[in-house]
Amino acid sequence: MRTLDFQSPTLRRGAFQLAIGVIAPSPGRITVLIGPNGGGKTTALRLAAGLLMPDTGSVLIDGEPVHALSALQRAARIALVTQRPDVGAPFSVREVAALGRIARPTDAQRVERALQRVGLAALADRPYHSLSGGQQQRVAVARALAQHEPGGVLLLDEAFAAVDPPEAAAIVRAVREEAAAGATVLAATHDMAVASAIADDVWCIVAGQTRAFGPASDLLTAGALPALLGVAIAEVNGANGRIAVADYRAILPTQAP
Amino acid sequence: MTARRPMIGLAMVSAATLIVVAARLLVVRTLDGTFVVGWPSAVLGQFRIDAVLAAAAAGAALGVSGAIMQTLLRNPLASPFVLGVTSGAGAGVALASLAAAWAGVAAPVGAALGVPALIGAVTALGVVLLLARRGGSIDPVTLILSGVIVGAIASALSTVAESLLPPERRGLLAGWLFGRIPDVPDPGALTACAFAACGLTALAATWGSRLDAAALSDDEARSVGVPLAPMRTAMFLGCGIATAASVALCGPIAFIGLLAPHCARAMVGPRNRLLVVGSAVAGAGLLIGADALRQWIDIGGGRLPLGAVTAVAGGIAFLVLLRKTTGAWPR
Asked: pLDDT (tens digit, 9 = 90+) per residue, A75-99?
């Protein structure tokens, strides 16, 4: 199993400053990153992926600084789904998913299996650009699953943002299976319902700083979340426990009838 | 469109190119306007062979450069001419000719044209990429507009250099700036262009799957294991060298680098390992074909300038692609 450690990485970009302290997401668990837009969730994930070099401090994978590894070494340990996946060539769905395997010997079985897991096996020969936004998002997840080695690190940046609940369910199932197999999963989302569905742990980043890190059962509650995020949160009873949702009726001004 | 059998597609592109080669070698229009099919004397035959070799080398260099640029810039309209690289190389040569005239030394010829052509090509490409960069990524529309404008400025510089040349030196440069396939190519320039085209094609084919991944967003490409920055630098430099070598051999030629990858992609599919090879072969075929057309069509006043043939045919194709794609891949 890979270990991922944030050793007080800091980063300054113009007026934005990130200083998230010492955080160690647990292998085998899904850590959900929450926080307001522009607060530093994506920056934290890009640091973890080795795509940004911290000004001070470091992010370690198995004790080695991530940004010091070669692109190939990183690809073997860390798979990433970005917020806005993009494909600038007329590839088929299968060809895009197979790009997850370019660092290592191509394994057609893994690519097919990854497409099956996100429910895209039937669309594998379709042109990528003929797919809907939600389907394209799932192709990006399939690409990351094809790349991801069991027990590695899986980073998801708003991977559920453009997908319908049934599509999201396929991704949730796959991500849970990887965590159960020992993966360290770090997933950013602004959707509290999704967070409720997948989070083992919650990491809340506000204005570039870690506001809270702990078990979801403590933090994803109508009691804790409003203080962390500054928005009204309601809890509803789901089929498998309570679900936190943003309470837009409380956030928006009520209109006179 | 995805070709299901890329190797068969590549074989078809190669076969089409061979047919064009045979037509260029065996069919000529004589001065009285009749067409003659057959092999001439050894001397005239050698002219035809040399012209085919020069067009093949230059066309392959432009074709493979266009394919790599379209992949790395994620833009179906990218190519050496549209991005101003061809015109930049032309301006480099024109300014070198002017400098030589002012210094009172002989104008550079043959392989020696490669140096100013390379300086012009790399400068133009660097300026275009800098101008198109918006917040860390390349904006597709700004990229094409920057390329067109840099190309126009480079062409204007060539015209200025040409007008400042002494009359006895002007004709040589003017003919070259039109783009032409030499019947008697400079051996050094021909060898350099052939090496550049083959070398770039081999390198790009070796890095085929990395180039495929470069079609992803920058973050995704790096996360699947592509060392993006060094690969881009090496590939763009390779495209600059190949384009400059083609310009040194045949002058600035428009649109071959745009059309060849699209022809190849329709037959071979989008995977770069074979696409770059197909683009090189298609580029060779297109330029040999354009040279053949130039020989065959008579609108009075002798044979057509090659640059005009590729510009008219390629310009129309560019407009069709522009309507179809607006600088992005079909949705």
From this structure: 999 999 998 888 988 899 999 999 9
From B194, B156, B152, select the one nearest B58 (Cα to Cα): B194
The neighbour count for residue A214, using CB atoms within 10 Å, is 13
Q: Could you tell me if B217 lies within 8 Å of chain A, comparing CB atoms? A: yes
What dihedral do alpha carbons A68, A73, A79, A80 form, nearest 10°? 40
Question: Using an 8 Å Cβ cutoff, are A67 and A59 in contact?
Answer: yes
pLDDT, tens only, A122-174: 999 999 999 998 899 999 999 999 999 889 999 999 988 878 888 888 889 99
Alpha-carbon torsion angle B178, B179, B181, B187, nearest 10: 120
Could you tell me which of A174, A188, A171, A149 has the C-alpha nearest to residue A2?
A149
3-state SS, residue A9: strand
Structure tokens given for A5: 């450690």
Taking only the tens place, the pLDDT of each residue in A206-246 is 999 999 999 998 888 888 888 888 777 888 877 777 778 77
Rg for chain B (alpha carbons), in Å? 19
SS (H, E, C) B137-151: EECHHHHHHHHHHHH
What digits encode the pLDDT tens for the residues B260-273?
Answer: 999 999 999 999 99
Using CA atoms, how far apart are residues B178 and B306, in angstroms rounded to an integer? Answer: 7
Distance CA B265, CA B239 (A): 19
A14 touches chain B (CB under 8 A): no
Query: Residues B295, B237: contact at Cβ < 8 Å?
Result: no
Say if CB B204 and CB B198 are below 8 A apart: no
CA–CA separation, B109 and B173 (whole Å): 10
The gap between the terminal CA atoms of chain B, to the nearest Å, is 11
Which residues of chain A are within 8 Å of residue B331 when distances are taken between CB atoms?
129-130
Q: Which two tokens stand for residue B194?
A: 């052939």
DSSP structural state of residue B295? H
Residue pair B176/B251 in contact (Cβ under 8 Å)? The answer is: yes
H or E element in which residue B111 lies: none
Global confidence as pTM? 0.90
Q: Which amino acid is at A244?
A: A
Q: Which residues contact B118 (CB under 8 A, 6 or more apart)?
A: B89, B92, B240, B241, B244, B245
Q: Which residue among B73, B265, B331 sits closest to A129, beta carbon to beta carbon?
A: B331
CA distance A241 to A249: 22
Using CB atoms and an 8 Å cut-off, which of residues 53-92 of chain A contact chain B?
Answer: 70-72, 74-76, 78-80, 82, 84-92
Which residues lie closer than 8 Å to B153 by C-beta, 6 or more apart?
B84
**How far apart (Å, rounded) are the C-alpha atoms in residues B196 and B202?**
10
Query: Which residues, 6 or more positions from B223, have their beta carbon under 8 angstroms from its beta carbon?
Result: A49, A51, A74, A75, A78, A79, A80, A82
Q: What is the DSSP string of B182-223?
A: -SS--HHHHHHHHHHHHHHHHHHHHTHHHHHHTTB-HHHHHH
